[in-house]
Amino acid sequence: MNSMDRGFWKIRTVSSKGLTALVISIVLLLSGCGKKGPPVPPRHEIPPPVTNLSWEINKQTITLSWSVPQVESSIHLAGFKIYRSRKRLSVSDCPDCPGIFKPVADILIETPTSQDQDGEKKIYTEDMETGSRYEYKVIGYTENGISSPDSNIVSFDYQISMKKDPSEVRP
Q1: Does the residue 86 lie in any domain?
Q2: Is residue 146 assigned to a domain?
Q3: How far apart are CA 122 and CA 115, in angstroms?
Q4: I need a labelling partner for 170 at 20 to 30 A (CA). Which of 37, 59, 74, 126 fits?
Q5: Domain range holding 137?
């Protein structure tokens, strides 16, 4: 007969170290790392947009200017990216279609942690091609790469009239 038939059970003793390790393992497996759910990225403050983008033309050069927006102390602007859309006026495409903006410049702020930058004017200049429709916008960004919403968009047609003034025509 075996021990089962006689109503006896063999009990094996476990040392206190082994029991402690078993209890710790069970507790760790059941406790996990806290709240269950999908991971959430850290929250970042979004910088405010540029609201006063303006332009001025002098001969063949466009000058864009804007003020550095006022930001909270937790946001540190690192710079501004300038985007441009350019279409030839001779091309007859959809006049109401939105432009395709491409980055043309990156204007860095020398001291991004300085709060006295608020309201400082930034300027960007470039030469233009005659017979083109231009649109520009500016997007600020932080040291962490967080972008602001788009600025106001400035747009204009640049063409130089090749006609002479009738008073300048000689007989």
Answers
A1: yes
A2: yes
A3: 15
A4: 59
A5: 54-158
* Burial degree of 78 (CB within 10 A; 0-12, 13-18, 19+): middle
Other CB atoms closer than 10 Å to residue 117's CB: what's the count? 19
In a domain, residue 79? The reply is: yes
Span 76-97, pLDDT tens digits: 889 999 999 998 877 666 667 7
What is the three-class DSSP state of 65? strand
In which element (H, E) is residue 82 found? strand 77-88
What are 144's two structure tokens? 């962490």
Which of these, 86, 82, 70, lies nearest to 124 by C-alpha position? 82
| 23 and 40 Cβ atoms separated by less than 8 Å | no
Q: Tell me, what CATH number does 128's domain have? A: 2.60.40.10
Phi, psi of 168 (to 5 degrees): -90, -10
The amino acid at 117: Q
Does 16 reside within a domain?
Answer: no
Instruction: Write out pLDDT tens, residues 49-73.
Output: 999 999 999 988 999 999 998 888 7
Number of structural domains in the chain: 1
CA torsion 92-93-98-104 (nearest 10°) is -60
The pair phi, psi for residue 31, each rounded to 5°, is: -80, -30
